[in-house]
UniProtKB/TrEMBL annotation:
Native species: Onychorhynchus coronatus
A cellular component term, taken from the record's GO annotations: cell projection
Main location: other
Matches recorded under Gene3D superfamilies: Phosphatidylinositol 3-kinase Catalytic Subunit, Chain A, domain 1, Pleckstrin-homology domain (PH domain)/Phosphotyrosine-binding domain (PTB)
The family this protein is said to belong to: Belongs to the kindlin family.
Protein name, UniProt field: FERM1 protein
Record bears the keyword Hydrolase: no
UniProt keyword list: Cell adhesion, Cell junction, Cell projection
Domain PH: 378-474
Subcellular location: Cell junction; Cell projection
GO molecular function terms listed in the Swiss-Prot or TrEMBL record: integrin binding
BP GO annotations: cell-matrix adhesion; integrin-mediated signaling pathway
Amino acid sequence: MSSSSDYGSHTWGLLLTVDHQHENVEKEFLLQVTGDLHVGGLMLKLVEKMKISQDWSDYAFWWEQKKCWLLKTHWTLDKCGVQADAKLFFTPQHKMLRLRLPNMKTVRLKVSFSTMVFRAVSDICKILNIRRSEELSLLKQTGDTLKKKKKKDKNSKEPVTEDILNLCNSPVSSGLPANPGLYSKTMTPIYDPVSGSPASSTITWFSDSPLTEQNCNVLALSYPNCSPEMLAEMYQPRTLADKAKLNAGWLDSSRSLMEQGVLEDDQLLLRFKYYTFFDLNPKYDAVRINQLYEQARWAILLEEIDCTEEEMLIFAAIQAYHVSKLSLSSEAQDSTCESEVDEVEAALSNLEVTLEGGSTSNILEDITDIPKLADNLRLVRPRKLSLKAIKSYWFIFRDTSISYFKNKESAQGEPIEKLNLKGCEVVPDVNVAAKKFGIKLLIPVADGMNEVYLRCDNEDQYARWMAACVLASKGRTMADSSYQPEVQKILSFLQMKNMSSQATSDPESVDMKPECFVSLRYTKKYKSKQLTARILEAHQNISQMSLVEAKLRFIQAWQSLPEFGLSYYIVRFKGSKKDDVLGVSYNRLIRIDMATGDPITTWRFSNMKQWNVNWEIRQVAIEFDQNVSIAFTCLSADCKIIHEYIGGYIFLSTRSKDQNETLDEELFHKLTGGQE
């Protein structure tokens, strides 16, 4: 019989596995423990039993069955719920991870596998010198998006060796705090103002970063090398359902990498997840702007976002120009000093004007003037069983509404119809070559969307009315300070579209591979010489830009596309018998017919009262103003991803420049975390 003292101790055996590199030392240890032993004490007992002299400060216990870390070292085993059948691994919290960046370069670095992904991404961005880390996240490629690539790999005889940039010696990635001055607004500009390449002197303030000048160049400069063969091997979405697969693999920002099944040396994608790019500054954002440009470039080449042939040629021209600029970068660097002097002179002249108060009268005029547009436009209403009805009316745009009358003389009376544009969808319908300047308005009504087209006579008229419609859809009027910049942005985009008919170069004399700059659809449609000639025509309109301006213009053109910023998911709305596509954008949700691709209904975040998730049935429910409520289940991804998207965009809308670039991480997790 056993003595009572054997039971009185309440000890029990706990098997621990240690992740270490010492060959002659056992990896499994059986310790006798009690339930009131705290986690820190368990660590101490284990280390004393191993008798290995090394730094164990980065080690923690990983509970395999529960898929969780035991990071609260003051908690007892009873409080944690650890019993004799628990499998605990004593393993480093920071492990190697391969990240594929938007420019398709792969970097290898140490990342915390125990902190929430939101914090891990922030640390990664500090290593890579990317500001505004909250706009990015980690994406795990799903099986569907890898199938095509794997199929191609089976046919290839030669093994593909990937060029990996190793950044594993970073103090940040080893768990040490980053230099607090890394993102100081007074730091030296990291962009050469002329060539757009990173200035060599800026590496000196990366005292805690593994980025050498060569590595920084790899991240901040682009060398397009996407042949048609390379494009053919990559996943290209053909339908909305295919596009939904691209967004299925976003990691949960409120959980750690290890909790989500990510293993050491796995490969993830680092991508811009939220399409609200705050405070893009060429002086400090060399890597950020380049990676953003690259993400836009690949989205267009792989047709993840739709664009017209005319727009595709503009994007191709900027890319071709980018390549030619890179070859001249050494010459451009010689004029850096002159450019810096010009910047100082410009700043001084701006300061002088401000101090003299030269623009005060204009400001007062803007405040007292009531914004209004009045023009003759053509109204087009699609009809199901006949041709479109096109008729000219006198239109007046005031506040956020458009009213139209039979003619100018009858404008004092009641309008034929008044269209409230708040919450509507505004889509450009433009073909510069054909002198077509149209605005497509999808106005929410009780049973769906009311489709209306406005036709303008010229570029200037189109830019003014289009800018007014865009602002009105967001609930803003032409009195808003962003109206004139929006007009200028539209005009500059139209100018790029307005290709000159006279090409400055002979296509045969230009060393260009046009297939590298357009999607496969156009390489099949046109011969190489035809593409070269058309790209050169578009090239003339951007020939005076600096490299940085070309990248920013590319990003701006990308932002002007109708589908920009939409992330798609396949959902089933409550009460519906068929699947629909839900488009999530920075300011709205759009219900889209999966078969036709037509928008059915739009809901603005500004009208949202609350949203919640029923985690048992995985259903997202949202309430809007005017007693409008919707509920849906997500079929193409976990509903947590959509929940985080909505909360994330609302979080990003709270940012302001006076926050000194500090983030309220607690608020982010309140808005996106949820209670599963």
